[in-house]
Structures are given as C-alpha cells and as structure tokens.
From TrEMBL, chains A, B:
Species classification: Bacteria, Bacillati, Bacillota, Bacilli, Bacillales
Domain Transcription regulator PadR N-terminal residue range list: 23-87
Name of this protein: PadR family transcriptional regulator
Organism: Terribacillus saccharophilus
Domain of life of the organism encoding this protein: Bacteria
DNA sequence: AAGTGATATATCATAAACGGATATAAAGGA
DNA sequence: TCCTTTATATCCGTTTATGATATATCACTT
C-alpha cells in the first residue's frame, strides 16, 4: 500500500510524466518525449522532473524498472498510475467540454 | 495595452474563473458556479479567487463591470480573455488526445 | 430587536509547486 | 583533446495555491 497523498488533481508536468511513462522510460527520455510530443511547447527541466519522479514513486503511481544501461534509471507507470491517469483524462475532458459549451453558448445570446 | 505577463498555460482555478466569467459574475457567484458545475469536486476559496481576479485584471483577461448592487463587484472575460481561453481549451484537448492515444495503444502491445 | 446563516469582499501567512541555474560524470564525435 | 550530448541530482528563489481569519451586509426567524 503506497503512503503518498492522493494527488486529487494532476498538474500539467505530472500529467505529462505519467503519460510518458505508460511506456517505460528513463528520466532524460521523459524530457525529450514531452518536448517532442508538444512540439517544443512544453518543456520539463531536470528540477521539475526529478522532484515529480520522487513524488510519483512515493504515491505508487510509477515504479522503478531494471535497465541494462548502468547510468540510467528507468521508470514505468503502475496500474494505480494508469487508473489515476484515466481519471484525470476524464476530469480534463469535462473541463474542456464545459468551456466549449460555455464559449459556444455565448455566441448566440438572444437565443 | 495590458501590462501583465503572458500566462502561457492556465492553471485549473484560473481556467475555471475565466470560464465562469464568460458571463458576467461577481466573485462570490464564481465560487458557487464552479462548485455547482463540478458537482462539488472543485472548490475555489476566497484567497485563491481574489488573488487570481487581481492577476487576470492585470493581464487584461477580465475586466470590471458596473453592478447595481453596491456591495458586489462584477467582472467579465474580455475579448483577449476569450481568445486565451480558446487557446487553452485547444491545448488541453491536445493533452487529452495524447493521453487517450497512449493509453489505448498500450492495450495492444504485440500489435 | 436580537440572533443566525448566507452573502460578499479582502488579506495574512503558510504551504506546495515550479523551474532556472548549477554540479557531476560518462559517452561520443571532431 | 575538447566539445556536445546524455544522464541524474539538488539548491534555492519565485510563483501559485489556500486555510484561516476579518469585516460587513442582508434575509430570515424567533
């Protein structure tokens, strides 16, 4: 049973890291992955990365995995992490849907 | 020309407040609106609310609007705020799409 | 008329999150 | 040999979030 807090809502960097680790990756590869996937829009630096890795390990949402390369540390999202990520995808979907409806309703005020 | 910083990515409370103010509301009504729309899942307290209102005013994403009730202060999202919100909706949509694809791809690993 | 709960705005002070800069070191190429 | 990239890690200042508290008005009950 993991000890960490519940992490009700995931912040953007936490979200991206969990997504990156759906397939096993080491830290540096996470940074590259996020930068590539967002076309350079979103960058995660080492400070943010390793801080969050620690937190996610503690929360049991990711776990370490053996790696042949000795100077690498590879991680992967756990089952709990996948579940949490799915929850968060739904939460964010609802936010997008709400905003979309509100924005579209605004256009036709007088009905 | 507003002075504030660009606010590249919007945090959750900022997002909700901008959505709430697509239709003119006063501070307290924003709190109620967000709590209702999220079925009590997401709550914005006064500290968060008024801190962000100040920042959004400064950034020109919302503006004050006259209100008949003297003890109320009503705000509304500006054109710039609407534009920013639309940007953010797209950004969040892309995040949701990425995660959805990654999660679904994971299921069928061996093709 | 007094009391109570909801309405309404605002700040304080702390906590949590982020992120640039820096450090260290090994690997690969010119 | 030197430089860039890979790779992990922490320091520490800035930003952001938020519970608690304060103040005041309004609506309703007793």
């Amino acid at each position: 049973m993991p000890k960490g807090k519940s992490l009700d809502e995931l912040t953007d960097p936490v979200f991206y890291i969990l997504v990156a680790l759906v397939e096993a990756r080491h830290g540096y590869a996470i940074m590259q992955y996020v930068e590539e996937e967002t076309e350079g829009t979103f960058k995660i630096g080492p400070a943010t990365l390793y801080t969050i890795i620690k937190k996610l390990l503690d929360a049991g949402l990711i776990e370490a995995e053996p790696d042949s390369e000795p100077r690498r540390k590879t991680y992967v999202t756990t089952a709990a992490g996948i579940a949490k990520l799915k929850e968060e995808v739904e939460r964010r979907s609802r936010m997008v849907d709400l905003a979309t409806i509100v924005l579209q309703t605004k256009g036709r005020k007088g009905q």
